[in-house]
Design a protein that fits this description.
The protein is α+β, with helices and mostly antiparallel strands. It is built from one helix and three strands, in the order E-E-E-H. It is about 30% helix and about 35% strand. A three-stranded antiparallel β-sheet has the order 1-2-3, with helices on one face. The longest helix is centred in the last third of the chain and has 14 residues.
Length: about 50
């Protein structure tokens, strides 16, 4: 079953910084939005499941 998440992001000193709304502890950054999305996916996959 797939889930849908909302990526909230902003620019900070040349970086795109973001988090997944409703998912505590999943933050990341990237030089492009695409890189940020890739890093967020990686962070979500590495997050311990409860």
């Amino acid at each position: 079953m797939s889930q849908t998440f909302v990526l909230e992001y902003w620019q900070d000193e040349g970086w795109y910084v973001g988090r997944l709304k409703g998912v505590p502890g999943v933050f990341s950054q990237g030089t492009t939005v695409e890189e940020l999305e890739e890093n967020i996916r990686d962070g979500l996959c590495r997050k311990p499941r409860r």
